Amino acid sequence: MPNKTYQGDLTLTGQTVELSLQDLPEIGEAGSGAVIAPFAFARIDTTSNGSGTGISWSNWNAGSGTLDITFDTAQANTNYTVVTDGEANDDARLVSVQSKTTSGFQISVYDSNGNAVTPSAANSFAIIVYGETPTIEVQAGNDVIIKSIQNAYVPTTEQIMSSSVWTDIDGSDVSFTPLSLNSDILYRYEFPAASANTGEFDLSLRLLVDGIEQDDSFEYNYDQGGGGQKISYSHIIPSWGIGTSYVVKLQGKVNESYRSAIVHPEMPIGETPSSFRQARLVITEYA
Fold this sequence. Notes:
Elements: E1 6-13, E2 16-23, E3 32-36, E4 40-44, E5 50-51, E6 55-61, E7 66-71, E8 81-85, E9 94-98, E10 104-110, E11 125-130, E12 135-139, E13 145-153, E14 159-160, E15 167-168, E16 174-176, E17 184-194, E18 201-209, E19 212-213, E20 219-223, E21 228-238, E22 246-253, E23 262-263, E24 279-286
Antiparallel strand pairs: 1-2, 2-13, 3-12, 4-11, 5-6, 6-7, 7-10, 8-11, 9-10, 13-24, 14-23, 15-22, 16-22, 17-21, 17-23, 17-24, 18-19, 18-20, 18-22
């Protein structure tokens, strides 16, 4: 069956990617793909503390012309890319980036003579930040992507799953507000896991929305040989209503008490790339 191609406009709005797509006539089923999109965006036109999408700013220093930028969600590393631009006065205002951390960075705003330039409505500029891997996966079937959110998470501690109770999996929770009543929401969470010893790996998963287990969301993972692996969980949820924000999260449990499962296991330094520990959450609404 031939692929279906979309053409349209991409609006950069930080962690939320909005696609306006138009079908091309007489071309078959739609599929999936990736778009290049930032995780943070801000338009700075004041020296007062403020926020944009996925980002905030504070601590304007008039003497040095510096401003602190903070991410809503910390990044896995400092390999993100910061793009700055203004609609006017670019020749009279320069913006440089320094002191990058996983939580944010600092900018300096100055003119060609090195003097501080004060952000204002007449002298505004934008900050756009792309992650180390600046792509977001989108899936549409025959439908149109309405909204897509991606979060990266690097845990600092491992979680040992219980055989007696369901446990919330770190980094799997997201607060989501549908934009349509007649839509479906694809939830996907990829994360590392391992057996606690050399024995069998055993992990059951289920998805909750507003604390309620979703129909047919149960998934069972088993590996007789144990060891480390990547788990990729996905489930489609029908929209629960426009403008209502619910927390969507994944829970885990060991099915057999003599087996084991560790989520976000500690990796020996030098043996496993640190990127293996990074978890990735993507939630996409389409209609």
